[in-house]
Amino acid sequence: MPDTTVIYYTSNKEDERFESNIQRTLLEMIGDMPLISVSQKPINLGKNICVGDRGSSVFNAWRQLQIGVNESKTEFVCTAESDTLYPYEYFRFKPQIPNKFYLPNKCHVIFKGMGKTKSFFRKPLASEGMIVVGREFLRNRLEHMFDGMPEWSGEAEQPHFYDRKETELFEVPYP
Q1: Fewer CB atoms inside 10 A, N or C side of the chain?
Q2: Strand pairing partners for 38?
Q3: Which of the 8 DSSP states describes residue 129?
């Protein structure tokens, strides 16, 4: 049994064709790894948990991540967002320490419709949408972060569940 579950979360606000391509590529990259999708509309992707229309916000994205983490059974989890392509090697990384956030060393961001301005840049560090971490460590961290908070919110303060000091980069050949 694989020791890492992929947690895919989406507010289903992306263009359907775009998100369908993201999902198809995700399935190609993860192979037989366990996959839990937490969505705001029903989707056919791994084990789907539909939470209903909650609105698009960082708060709600992290709540959806929490639901997926709570449902997973493996030692580790890795995140997958509905607007992100991940290299094959991201899903093959084997963490050594369960209470550390591992991020791939290459992350490029591309913006749609930016015209003549720069529409692409290399992020120095990946984001919460690109982590591999111990399931229990993340579950406890999210539980603590959401303590006393509403269940869903489009306007609550943007929560953060890790500090950059708790991260370690790992090599991937492609962004």
Answers
A1: N
A2: 9, 49
A3: T
d(CA 132, CA 126): 11
Q: Inform me whether the pLDDT recorded for 1 exceeds 80.
A: no
What is the CB neighbour count within 10 angstroms for residue 166? 13
Handedness of CA 46, 52, 56, 57 (dihedral sign): negative
Give the pair of three-digit tokens for residue 17. 């064709």
| pLDDT given at position 60 | 94
78 bridge partner residues? 6, 132
72 and 5 Cβ atoms separated by less than 8 Å:
yes
| Contact partners, residue 122, CB within 8 Å, separation at least 6 | 106, 107, 108, 109, 175
**Number of other CB atoms surrounding residue 136 within 10 Å:** 14
Tens digit of each residue's pLDDT (9 = 90 or more) over 130-169: 899 999 999 999 999 999 989 999 876 667 777 778 888 8
Dmax (CA) for the chain in angstroms is 48
Report the C-alpha gap between 103 and 125 in whole angstroms. 7
The values of phi and psi at residue 68, to 5°, are -65, -45
Confirm if 49 and 37 have CB atoms less than 8 A apart.
Answer: yes
